[in-house]
Amino acid sequence: MKTDTIKEMSQSYTIHPDTRLGIVSLTVANLERQIEFYLKVLGLQLHWREGARAGLGVGRQDLIQLVEVPGAPRARGTTGIYHFALLLPNRRELARAIARLFQLGYPNYPTDHVVSKTTYLDDAEGNNIELYIYSSDEGTFTFENGQLMVRRTDGRLSNGREALDVEALFRELSPEDDLHDPLPEETMMGHVHLYGSNLEDSMCFYRDVLGFKEGAIVPGFRFADVELDRPHVIAFNTWQGEGAPPPPPDSLGLRHFTIVLPKRDELDKVLARVRETGISTEDVEHGTLLRDPSQISIFLTAKKTE
Question: Which residues does 295 contact at the CB level (< 8 Å), separation at least 6?
Fold first, then answer.
């Protein structure tokens, strides 16, 4: 990236607030096993399958794309995805998702972040997934002097990583609720959390080039994130080490994640800024591929019009 150009561009553009995250594409070693996981355990629907590829999601919306590379290895100590997170519409749907995991005996870790309620689990090949809802009316979540500070609305402090009260959550359910129904069509890709190589470079790219709003920057925690009209949309950390390299081609895990602009002209604005910095791009069907400073692939596209 041309650093001087980016400094001149800084704060001169904000990405459209209706921008959303789209499909997360993963390289998998066993397509059948992964499809079974995403259907039976997570509750997605199989939308299409073509040879070694498949798309799964909710309603008519794909959320996950799987691409099979038999024998693909798992790279360690590299950049890539820490987890992707599906945002559910309400407490009842989170309760139903967690109850299904409990009924299946599938390992997961319900957690109360105060400002969100969540559970974490790994898919059949070790990709970490978060299922969550917002509960921002219950407290505030900030970083001060490199420390996580969570304060409930009643004044009590929390570490933000308490065990979720699942018994209280399950009271949202009724005997008529079918735990094996698919996730609701309102489910969306809520955020992606990335293993990066440098916090400052990543923030410069996502904030100053793409135009996301700056969120938290916590060097002591080696973490930062950016926002849209809601917090924590793209997060990045250096927990794999400062200057971590990208994984070898066709490793298990992230192929790319998707940023969806609401209209074609909004996409063109972002692409013009990207190209002004000297970042390489590749035009492909329905959008453009590029890489962030950590060499993580991003697919930029515009929302399809009906």
Answer: 79, 197, 245, 246
Q: Cα(26)–Cα(74) distance, rounded to whole angstroms?
A: 12
Residue 95 CA to residue 183 CA, distance in Å, equals 11
- Dist. CA 185–CA 45, nearest whole Å: 10
Structure tokens at 181: 């129904």
Q: Could you tell me which of 189, 160, 177 has the C-alpha nearest to residue 95?
A: 177
Counted residue by residue, the chain has a size of: 306
Which domains, ranges and CATH numbers included, belong to the chain? 3-302 (3.10.180.10)
Cα distances (Å, whole numbers) of residue 39 to 36, 126, 195, 226, 250: 5, 16, 27, 31, 24
List the one residue out of 253, 238, 288, 95 whose CA is nearest residue 173.
Answer: 95
3-state DSSP call for residue 146?
A: coil
In degrees, rounded to 5, the angle at the alpha carbon of residue 70 between the alpha carbons of residues 52 and 86 is: 65
Sequence letter at residue 20: R
Model pLDDT for residues 209-246, shown as the tens digit of each residue: 999 999 988 888 899 999 999 999 999 999 999 999 99
Distance CA 67, CA 51 (A): 9
pLDDT tens by residue, 163-215: 999 999 999 999 999 999 999 999 999 999 999 999 999 999 999 999 999 99
Distance CA 191, CA 280 (A): 25
Tell me how far apart the 2 most distant CA atoms of the chain are, in Å. Answer: 61
51-69 pLDDT tens trace: 999 999 999 999 999 999 9
Q: Is 59 left (phi over 0), alpha (psi -120 to 50) or beta?
A: left
**Separation CA 266–CA 301 (nearest Å):** 10
Kindly report, residue by residue over 76-131, the tens digit of the pLDDT: 999 999 999 999 999 999 999 999 999 999 999 999 999 999 999 999 999 999 99
